[in-house]
């Protein structure tokens, strides 16, 4: 069949090669835009972009959509919120606070809650979306690390993601501080203390931020600008960069038949993912709206306006600041006095040093791992967590470390709800934050290695069918069947141990630090079976299946293997 | 003064109503009769006699139920090592007894960091007798009258609203540090706790402020006046009656339970949806009719 190529464009010129008939209205509009903006190529590229399918790839999407919800609801809130610390007398509709002096920030928050139609709902939706934004970033990060999606070429995107997590936390904290209620004021007071605990420059930093002595009347307008302008702009830019890199790198995929390091198997953006993503956006918006409608969050009217003389039991930050708060709660009260100045290690270590160090460790994880393994290859196929036992165990140890401090942040609530002594919780957690991660590391690593062994077992001897067979000798064993081929294939797409390079030696002939770490990293790692092992096992299985086939499908009457075999058909009937 | 003007104004509005005459007569009769009954010398003697009987009855109950720890004269018991076995009750007053026994704290189930609250072991008559006996040991705060503690006894709704606003400020300054912002309770050192006051009787809240049980401070009348105490109770009551404007209050415990809701409910539901969406692909497991498997 010959094709007439005379009417096909030979170049990417904007002039149509052959205007064939009248275009549709939509087509004409699209053409108009394309001729002026050149978006045709981009939209063609994006709409045909292939993404692989797996539920865990959508965790980051929760963060993206809750960020959109935050922008929408946040804009709404700025229409009524007054970021001012000018003192006024509240005269709104909430009776128990009427006649009380408070800042305009607090009064306008009460107005949003009680006098603006739909205001309380939107306030709560905004706050719930913020809680979910950071939570979903964290589980997204867990997914990325556990599956090895942080490896080359995605290290920069990991750094961007970690920065988003830090900025999201700061954004949440500044938002939490704006209403100037008792809890947010307590939080700002605590932040002031944290800053002042920084040696040498602390008091200057505090005076700089507050425009003088705490609380002054600058802090809320300043936090407002940071909260609605500075951090959101950076967040938006970084999210854009994160997504552009995602498209540039192509999405990682799970191994399987037909999936290689050089392709992406999945569905195109249009129509598949555009509809799934739109749907998920509405679901995220819906879930935050329902949370806002049915679950109370930050009831500022119960806290009342901030006043430095007041504090309440159960003063906690939002969950994402809970772990530094917990570290602060269980830190022994170490303090030094030099030359008339106080050095508050008890505040400086847990709230300033620890979170920054932890963040740096998270930031460096891909680079540390690549340095240890020496792996410089690109990776687009994901790994199951069990196939990188040391990595998985390391992250579980970090999570346990986090969880210990997190629990400490709620020590008072744990004490009253479980009838425990707050002191004993503190002593326990002081030990747990050091010993817990070590135990978690060992348990997780052994667990992963066991799962690797189990995988090999399944590859070599098949999966358990649940059918128990009695052999002629009277022994019992369970019948195994070979795995489906695609499943077996996906399980065997992984590296065989470390690259067979010579271990790095120091000048004195001993193993270098890096070589020791690398040995530790791959220690006890179970290799996948070799082709010879596999074919031998399959041969054995076939033989066994053949031997057993004779017995299969017969009803068992208890006399299969003795001389009394008979069938009911041969028996005389009783009447 | 403003308050006085307002109540006078309200009275004068009603002074020409048809029933006004009858009402004035009734009030006059009642007050005269009441004053006579109160001031008559014979009844005072009778009351003293009654009180003596009550003290005697209280002493009997005390000897059986309390003296093991508090001593047979309520003087308290110390161990040989000088530790306190049961504190002295001289001067704690009737209010203290009414609170401790009325809330079921005493007689104590077992010594420990926190005295357990249980169903009261005595009825109100027996508690009154015990209180009278302990009050006879030394001067101390008396059981308050209903007008002192019950927010239902405010003269008008406006008066109550003003009291709620005042009480809220006192509550947030003096009480929330231990009892939490709604009164849901908080932790104290070494297994103790500031109990939840969400269901506590107004009378017991008043007595707790007055006598300072366990780790609680004593808020004497010089510190927080009786009117202010009543205002605090009015605020606590108003918080109980207030609807949860924001929805389910997550136990009124603050950000910890809110975080649990975010992770379990919010993120749980969203991840479930993610799994659901990913499970619906264009791929199909159905085989065409007639095609080989």
Q: Can you give a write-up of this model?
A:
The complex is a heterodimer of chains A (575) and B (293). By secondary structure, chain A is mostly helical. Chain A has 2 domains: 292 residues, Cytochrome Bc1 Complex, Chain C (Up-down Bundle); 166 residues, no CATH class. Chain A is built from 19 helices and 8 strands. In chain A, the strands form 4 sheets. Chain A has a two-stranded antiparallel ribbon with strand order 1-4. In chain A, helix 6 runs antiparallel to helix 9 and helix 14 packs antiparallel against helix 16. Chain A is globular, with a radius of gyration of 32 Å. Chain B is mostly helical and 293 residues long. Among the domains of chain B are: 91 residues, Cytochrome Bc1 Complex, Chain D, domain 2, CATH 1.10.760; 96 residues, Cytochrome Bc1 Complex, Chain D, domain 2. Helix content of chain B is 55%, strand content 3%. Chain B contains 12 helices and 4 strands, in the order ααααββαααααββααα. A two-stranded antiparallel ribbon of chain B has the order 1-2. A two-stranded antiparallel ribbon of chain B has the order 3-4. In chain B, a hairpin with a 5-residue loop joins strand 3 and strand 4. The radius of gyration of chain B is 29 Å and the shape is flat. Chain B starts with a helix and ends in a 14-residue tail after the last helix. The mean pLDDT of chain B is 85. Chains A and B meet through helix 3, helix 5, helix 10, helix 11 and helix 15 of A and helix 8, helix 9, strand 3, strand 4 and helix 11 of B.
